[in-house]
Amino acid sequence: MEAWEDWALGVLRRADLVPYNITMHTCLKIGSSLLLGLLACGDRRTAPTAAEEAGATVVLIAKVDAEVVARLAQVEVVITAADMPTRRQPLAVDGARIVGTIAEIPAGAARLFTVVGYDAAGDLVASGPAKLDLAPGQSVPLAVTLVAAPRPSRSPPPIAVALVPGVPLNMVWIDPGVFVMGSPLDEPGRNDDEGPQREVHLTQGFYLSQCEITQHQWTAVTGERPWRRHAVEVIEEPDRPAVYISWEDAQAFIAVLNAAAGGAVYRLPTEAEWEYAGRAGTETPWSFGAVEKKLEHHAWWTDNVAQTGQLAARPVGLKGPNPWRLYDMHGNVWEWVSDWLGAYPPGPQTDPQGPPAGTARVFRGGGFKDAASLSRSAQRCWNAPDQRFSHVGVRLVRDSDS
Predict the structure, then answer these.
(1) For every one of its 402 residues, what pLDDT tens digit does the chain have, with 9 covering 90 and above?
(2) Is there a single domain that holds both residue 34 and residue 140?
(3) Rounded Cα distance, 402 and 264, in Å
(4) Residue among 100, 105, 109 at smallest CA distance from 132
(5) N or C terminus: fewer CB in 10 A for the chain?
(6) Rounded CA gap, 305 and 332, in Å?
(7) Domain C-terminal end among 98, 113, 148
(8) Residue 141 to residues 59, 113, 385: CA-CA distances in angstroms?
(9) Is residue 46 domain-resident?
(10) What does pTM read for this prediction?
(11) Whole-Å CA distances, 50 to 108, 112, 131
C-alpha cells in the first residue's frame, strides 16, 4: 500500500495539485470532505437556491450619434424582469460610445436593459432597450442602439415640491395655449365620444407632475397602502404608481396636501388640461406620431407588459417622455381627471370644466393591460368615482410654484 501511496503522491505533486509537504493521509481526508460536499449538493435540503447562484455580468456598449453624445450629461441603465427588483446603474460616455459593466445580475430569462441618457436640465436625450436571458456566472457583451428623443419644450425646467418633508414631487410647467381637442373621424381606434373636435383655449398655465403619484408618495402623505387590500395585478414597490385608488381617494389625498399648504394649491387636471399636456403640441394619435410600433419607446401596454411576466403597473418614468417632458402620459396607468363624463359641446371652448354633475368621472391615458389604441391622446374612459382599479392612478396639478 505504501508503494501505491508514494506513486499517487508523486503524480499529484508533479501536476502541482498538492504541495510537496502534504501527506497521503491528508490527501485522503481532503478527498473525503470534497466527496461529502458533492453529495450534499445533490441533497435538495442543502442545495443552493436560485438566490444563492452566482450572478451574471453584462458588458454593455451603446452606440449613439455624435450630436446626441454632445448633449449627454448623465446616462444610466435600468434593468427590469419579472423575478427581480428594478435595478439602476450609471454608465460612462467614452467618445461616441456609452459603456459600463453590470455585475451580479440575478440569472434568469428576459432581463430587459433600458439605457437612458439625460442632458444637464434632466431632459431625456436618447434611450434604447435590449433583452437578454442570463445564466448563473455568465459574462456576456450587450450592444444597444439608442434612439434620440424629441426635443423638449423651452419651458422652465421642472421643479421639485415637497409633498411632505423629504418626499419630493417633480412637476413640469405647462404654458397656456390653444389646441384641438378630440380625434378626427379617420383616426384608427377612434370612439364616437372623442368628437366633435373643437378648439380649446386654456388661459392659465399650470404645473403638472412629471410622473404618476408613486406608492411611496401616496403612503408618505396618507400613511395608507390601499393596493395591499388587493392580491391581483399589483406589485408593491416604492417607484410603481399608486393604484386601487378611486377618484374620491384622490380628492382626500389632495385635501391633505392643501391643508398642509394652507390653500387650494393642488388639484386634478381638467380633461382638457390633461389632453393638452398629453398631446404636447401634436395632433397625431400619440405625442410621438402615428406609427404604433414606436409605442415601445414611450408606453407600457398589454403587449410589452406581457413580455415582462408581471401583469402590473411598471415603475414610473422608465419610458421616453413626451415633448413637454412628461412621462407615462401613454399607458402604464390611467389617470383620474376632475371632470364628470359628458359629451363634448360643439364649437370653441375656453377653460372647459366638464358637466356640472354626473354619475361617472373620467380617466385618461391608457393602462398596462390595455390595447395600444387605448393609450391614444384623445382616448376617454370613465367609471363611478368610488371605484378602484389595478390600472388607474393619478397625476396632480399645482397652480403655484411657491
Answers:
(1) 445 455 554 544 454 444 444 454 444 443 443 333 333 333 333 344 444 468 999 999 988 888 788 889 889 998 888 788 878 899 998 888 899 999 999 999 989 888 888 888 667 788 888 889 999 999 999 998 887 765 555 567 889 999 999 999 999 999 999 999 999 999 999 999 999 999 999 999 999 999 999 999 999 999 999 999 987 999 999 999 999 999 999 999 999 999 999 999 999 999 999 999 999 999 999 999 998 988 999 999 999 999 888 999 999 999 999 999 999 999 999 999 999 999 999 999 999 999 999 999 999 999 999 999 999 999 999 999 999 999 999 999 999 665
(2) no
(3) 12
(4) 109
(5) N
(6) 9
(7) 148
(8) 5, 12, 50
(9) no
(10) 0.66
(11) 9, 19, 20
187 and 226 within one domain: yes
Are 132 and 231 part of one and the same domain? no
The three grid cell numbers given for residue 225, joined into one nine-digit string: 397602502
Instruction: Count the domains in the chain.
Output: 3
Domain with 285, as residue range(s), is: 159-398
Cβ pair 199, 178 in contact under 8 A? yes
CATH number, position 368:
3.90.1580.10
Instruction: Tell me if residue 247 falls in helix, strand or coil.
Output: helix
Max Cα separation, the chain?
Answer: 106
Are 27 and 83 contained in the same domain? Answer: no
